[in-house]
Design goal:
The chain has about 325 residues and is mostly beta strands. The chain is built from no helices and 26 strands. Strands 14, 15, 17, 18 and 19 form a 5-stranded antiparallel beta sheet that branches. A 4-stranded antiparallel beta sheet has the order 8-7-10-11, with no helix packed on it. A 4-stranded antiparallel beta sheet has the order 23-22-25-26, with no helix packed on it. A hairpin with a 4-residue loop joins β10 and β11. The protein is rod-shaped and about 150 Å long. The termini are far apart.
């Protein structure tokens, strides 16, 4: 060795041929103090036993974590080897066979990222180190740690005109193995899917609402990962307009005109969704229509012949709206003019 050469010196303890502890290395500059050889000037054969060859120490895998929906990162520690050749990353299959999924040629590397054979938490990973003599040492085995699926937070649900459309807005921390969002509506005790999106960056959805005339509707957002695990957001309830009760007409008079006709007078505040008025007479326990009024401003009707012109068969006016709902007035008998 030439004078001035930089060397690194450390102490390693052995027990039964196996290294049990290694000190920190110290950087020195080599300076010879005497001529090589024995004390009498003759070349020396060296004294004492030669230390055993340095054994190859196995790496220690610390974590295997999911990085993306299809890749993982494998991290390990390693004391190093002077004759390092490569790291080989392996994963075991369900039949207990080991398969190479990656190679690292950098001796100072302590992490590998790539696509494994499977993205489950059953089949473990390990790292094998090789030296230039093709000797190897195998690490411990560690399974994949899957990320915890966190729930979205539903910030708002806004109903559009007449409740025919809603806009749902939420926040979400993200998920490496994201699959989809579902927008769900509560119906009785069940949750029905009203929309979904496969976009992991989506934070808003616009779609069909609860419908015209709704009074209340409850929604939530559910996130799913590739394993079909799910996490549901908080629930948001929206309320519609309070329906205005349908008021019945007020029958003012039912007067006979001619031998078989009548004139009906009534008052009423016409509803917004007016469809028609019907003048009806009760016959044999049921109500028979005598005539129809389709103009909302009309407040009288005359017609005939009327089936019964006696006081045992009363008359009434019924208002109908476009939804089919109706409200009946008071009843009156036919009076003589």
């Amino acid at each position: 060795m030439d004078a001035g050469t930089t060397i690194y010196v450390g102490v390693r303890a052995y027990s039964e041929g196996q290294a049990i502890e290694t000190s920190r290395s110290v950087q020195l500059t080599y300076q010879p103090t005497e001529e090589p050889g024995g004390g009498d000037g003759e070349p020396g054969g060296g004294g004492g036993d030669q230390p055993p060859p340095e054994p190859l120490t196995a790496p220690t895998v610390t974590t295997v974590a999911q990085a993306t929906p299809t890749t993982v990162t494998v991290d390990w520690t390693f004391v190093g080897a002077a004759d390092f050749a490569r790291f080989v990353i392996q994963q075991r299959d369900l039949e207990l066979g080991w398969h190479e999924i990656g190679i690292v040629l950098n001796g100072s590397a302590r992490e590998w990222a790539g696509a494994p054979n499977s993205m489950d938490s059953i089949n473990p990973f390990r790292v094998i180190v090789y030296n230039t003599a093709s000797q190897s040492a195998t690490s411990n085995e560690v399974t994949l740690t899957l990320p915890t699926l966190t729930a979205p937070h539903l910030e708002s649900v806004v109903a559009g005109l007449n409740g025919t459309e809603i806009t749902a807005t939420w926040t979400f921390a993200g998920c490496p193995d994201f699959h989809r969002f579902e927008i769900q509506k509560q119906v009785s005790s069940e949750w029905l899917v009203v929309g979904s999106t496969l976009d992991p960056a989506a934070r808003q959805w616009v779609g069909p609402g609860p419908g015209e005339g709704f009074t209340e509707a409850t929604y939530r957002v559910v996130v799913f990962n590739m394993a079909e695990e799910s996490a549901a957001s908080n629930e948001v309830t929206i309320t519609g307009e309070t329906p205005v009760p349908l008021t019945p007409p007020v029958l003012v008079s039912v007067t006979q005109i001619g031998p078989m006709g009548i004139n009906v007078e009534y008052s009423h505040v016409t509803p917004a969704e007016f469809a028609r008025y019907e003048v009806q007479q009760r016959t044999n326990g049921s109500w028979q229509m005598l005539g129809t009024i389709t103009t909302p401003e009309t407040r009288s009707w005359s017609g005939g012949p009327i089936p019964y012109m006696d006081t045992a068969h009363p008359v009434r006016v019924v208002v109908f709206v476009q939804s089919g709902d109706s409200a009946a007035s008071n009843e009156m008998v036919i009076t003589q003019p």
